[in-house]
Structure formats: C-alpha cells, structure tokens
Predict the structure.
Amino acid sequence: MEFFETVQGRRSTREFSDEEVADEDLMKMIDAGRRAPSGKNTQPLEYILIQDKEMLAKLDQVQKVFGGSAATIAIVADPEASRFWLEDASASAAQMLLAAHALGLASVWIEGTLQSKEEMAKELLGVPAGKRLAIMLPVGKAAAPREPKEKKPLDELVHRERYGQKQV
C-alpha cells in the first residue's frame, strides 16, 4: 500500500472480527513503533504484546474494546529516561496505527479512559511503579468496513507565514 493511501485510509476501529492476527504482523507493528523518533533519541519506550483472551477480557475494565481484539499492544514509557515520554509514545502509537492499516489490520488509540484507570491496568499487566502505561492499541481485523470521517479542508487550516494569512 502506498504511504498516502495508508494515511488517507486509516480508520479508528473498536469492533473486531474473530480472526486471529499473525505474530509476524504484530511484530511489524511494534517494529514500526520502536522506529518512531524520540526526544534526544532516548528511546524511553517498551511494549507489552497481549494475546491471552482472559487478559484481554480483564482489560475491558479499562474500556470495552480490548476483549474483542485479537491482540493489544501496550506502550510503556519511562518518565525518568525522558521528559518527552508522552510525545515519544504518541509518535510510536501513530506509526503503529499506520502500520496496522498497511497490514490490513484495524486498531484505535486508547489513552483518555486509560488515564483514569492506569494504576489498575498497570497492576494487571505487571508494569513497574515508576513507569507509565501511556497508550494501548487493540488490534484485529475490522468487523466491518468503516467510512471515512469528514476532515476539514486544508484551506481552512493552513496559514502562510503568519497566523491569519491565507493564500488561495
């Protein structure tokens, strides 16, 4: 799949089919994530690949999406290693989402509901106290195709040289 087709075609998916996902594809996603830029190249991230159905069902306590996924990738950050840990985790997640779509898989970025349930999720996954469970990506084959959401046109978003200056 060509890069810009991948960017334009990616959708957030919360409903998955029962199909399994190949370990090779999951590792390709994680590899794409680890190759994302990190502040001062500190690489403060680690990843947990969760495929156990019982654990995925327990993670539904965070948000009811994990139990239906074939796998989930959790991004663990070390705030002691970098003050840019959240930006680094975000870049990693974005690249993994694009990789998932390029591989014919579906996913969604889970962070908001995770924040309020981080300690519980960290305990379930055995994440050490000093680390942060930054983002989780449930992964699978989409249960059904999703239509693209409307995006604002570029001419409404791009300013030339200074804010408020538009060039047609």
